[in-house]
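Hello support,

Our group uses your service weekly, and this is the first time we've seen a run hang past the timeout. The protein is L-lactate dehydrogenase complex protein LldE. I'm not sure whether the cause is the sequence or the server load. Input pasted verbatim:
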Amino acid sequence: MRIALFVTCLNDTMFPGTGRAVVRLLRRLGHEVEFPAAQTCCGQMHFNTGYRRQVTPLVRSFAETFAPYDAVVTPSASCAAMIRDWHPRIDAGAATAAAKVYELAEFLVDVLGVTDVGAYYPHRVTYHPTCHSLRMLGLGDRPLRLLRQVRGLELVELPDAAECCGFGGTFALKNSAVSAAMGADKAACVRGTGADTLCAADNSCLMHIGGILTRTTGPEVRTVHLAEILASTEEDPS
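Update from on-call engineer: The timeout came from a worker crash unrelated to the input. Re-ran successfully.
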């Protein structure tokens, strides 16, 4: 397959290591990954804020940029959900490209048919299923199935895992008090697990929860994207 990485705005700007982890992981599994330089925003922030007419050019640009590829892999359940669910509704011509977009765990389990990716991560980890991954993409237990196969990793259940962390993109700005309260509840659940690592499929939620954890408990619990855990090996640890 000809695979492209859709890195997303947030990862490209603030968490480039996550994008590199996706490439490292897929190459280790025997696949080449290309990074189309023309890629830009999927339009989720504009769309959710009400600037829906401004999203159409972004949707068309995405479809054109990724048209040559057999699969498009992204380390963001949030952006994958935006593309798959909304791009075809915004512009019918985007349907073909949107159907080729996969969140990383989906691609590994459903397309490549693997759960053991040869990873090694000797930490106590708890997993937060972000709202888009849980409710829009329906990732189910795919990330957990992958984490259970990581050597050295102790996976512990997160209480009230399905509860939103309160980030919600611009929701955190427009409703900051509610967002902070929801985040504090989630952080308390994370601390209660005794895990030293919180994992998720979206760096946006990890950024929100991680900020609260750092302010309230210090650096005892770190946040790590699923891609970085799966890319980690004894020879090349994350």
